[in-house]
Amino acid sequence: MQDLPPIQSREMMGLKDILPINHLHVIYIAIHLVALSIVWSGFTWLGVSLCLVSYFGRHLGLVAGYHRYFAHRSFKTSRLMQFFLALHGSLCAERGPLWWGQTHRLHHRYSDTPNDIHSPYYQGFLYSHSGWFLNHKFLKTNYEQIPEFAKFPELVWLDRFNMIPLFTFAASMFYFFGWEGFAWGFCLSTVMIWHTTHTIQSLCHCFGGYRNFQTSDSSRNFWLFGVIALGDGFHNNHHYEPSSARHGFVWWEIDIAWYILKFLSWFGLVWELKTPKKWMKNKSSNLDKVLDKVTKNDASSGE
After folding, report:
1. Cβ proximity of 195 and 35 under 8 Å
2. What are the angstrom distances between the C-alpha of 114 and each of 117, 122, 193, 202, 218?
3. Average pLDDT, the chain
4. pLDDT at 138 over 60
5. Contact in structure between 228 and 128 (CB atoms under 8 Å)
6. Residues 170, 186: contact at Cβ < 8 Å?
7. CA atoms of 252 and 235, how far apart (whole Å)
8. Residue 76 forms beta bridges with which residues?
9. C-alpha count within 13 angstroms, C-beta hemisphere, residue 222
10. Which residues make Cβ contacts (< 8 Å) with residue 85, sequence separation at least 6?
């Protein structure tokens, strides 16, 4: 890991680019406020069920689609399935698939350097957590930085009109389940998805957790968070091999998105899933060294 400065306390950094408030800020704040309203509306098992199903169901589109496919091309799929992944991810209220993939590639290119778009070491914890997401400088998609997907008109259309499927989903939750469905099934689960993503961008580059690999950044893994984030919380593993569709490298690093992608590959819906080859090669090399050492010790004992 490179020598990094102390985590910045300059939380006002970028404020001039976050303000003035626009419709995106209003939507972001309003959804948080509605999510908080469950404190007064009360606990219900239906609400909790809707929240959890909505969280895990939608979040899979973000993790497998937006992140592992559009940002890192860690597997291949058909054009129809590609659009479905984009549509699925757009339900998470994290803008369009090409915007997400393009900005995430910038993060990996400059991870934990002054040019990183959300590094707690250079922009402060709160800014790296969610402030950058509201920064006017990053609202538009740079299609030149994601050309292999920008050539598909349906993806560009969805990237520009990503609010349509999101509002349709929100309206559906209200239509079928009323205020309870809207507050629990849409707003609270959306806030959970947002802050799961934000936590990966902030806490997973700060302190705590564990590091399997000495990467050039400060990425780290968190076991429980890794499970909740469908595998994306094993962030040090991911930064070690960004193109891998598998983020949980050992059996106890539970990577739900990887299991589902593997399942889909059995039916030919996705294929050529990339695995952590560098880690597997090093693991095999280390095992060979151990076996060679054991063999030599056995030979010495027998003499």
Report:
1. no
2. 8, 6, 27, 15, 14
3. 89
4. yes
5. no
6. yes
7. 15
8. 271
9. 20
10. 61, 64, 65, 66, 69, 70, 77, 97
